[in-house]
Each structure stands twice: as structure tokens, then as C-alpha cells.
Design a protein that fits this description.
The structure is a single chain. The chain is α/β, with parallel strands linked by helices. The protein has helices spanning 19-27, 49-52, 78-83, 91-105, 131-134, 137-148, 154-157, and strands at residues 4-9, 36-42, 57-63, 73-77, 113-118. It has a 5-stranded mixed beta sheet.
Length: 163
Amino acid sequence: MRPYLILGVGNLLLRDEGVGVHVVDRLSKRKLPDYIEVLDGGTSGADLVDVIANRAKVVVIDATEGDGEPGTLYRFTVHDLVRRVGSVGSLHEFGFLESYLMSVQLKCPPAEVVIIGVQPNDVHLGLELSQSVTDRLPKLIELVLYETILPEDRHVFASPRLP
């Protein structure tokens, strides 16, 4: 098991709801450091305990309802999610939160969890992302790489735009 996990969740059949899966599909085709695993979590939720157990860092990508315009990117931690559980708009975050809380009870939680959310535009039946979400994919991928690639490796593996 690699210490860093990029976990994309969502339903590919509901357009922007599948943004996390689209991102991990793109990242799985890139050369990344050996310490990073990229995984399509699909619509999994509470059954991800063994996938996240004892990781150094988990970065979750999902469609997230917020107050922003379609394509708005959000970054929060699992602790933010626990505090705001009543106001979070993604079904997958609830499933992921259950997995995280179970890993805490089992004494094997990941050391750090970051959630990168994207404000969806269209969650109706369809396989393609909306244009407003598609336009944000380069920045979203850049943020995910910034969260996972260690500073000493950024010059080799990351976008030149990363700080």
C-alpha cells in the first residue's frame, strides 16, 4: 500500500457528479511518484475503510454543493467535514466520512485527509462533464498534485504552475 492516496468518487452516469472519477482517470495516465496511488472509488462510501487505513495522506475529489458558481473549487479537511456534516452536499462525503470514522474506531485512520470539492453545474443523466466543470479540470488536477506530491519531487512530476 502506498502512503498517499488520490481517491476520486462520484457517479459517472450523472455528468458533473462523476468529476472525481474523471480526474483519477486522467491522473492514472500520468507518471506520478511511486508513493502515490490513484484510485477510482466510484459510488463507494462506507466500504472504503481498508482502502484509506493507515495512509499518510488521502486526497478525495468529489462534486460538492456550496455557495459558489458552477466549477468553483473547495478545499477542506475531514475535520471540517465532521464539524459541518449537516451542510455538506455530497452523498459520497457522508459515505467517506463513515469510512473515516470507522478507521478512527479501528485505530487505523489516515494521518491526513483533504477533500477537494467542485461545485457541479449539471447532475442529470449523461456521461460528459458540463463545460464549466471541464474548464476547471486543469486547476483541479494542479491542486490535487500540489496536495500529494512532496515538495522535493514537484520539479519532476508536477505542473510548472505549482508554487
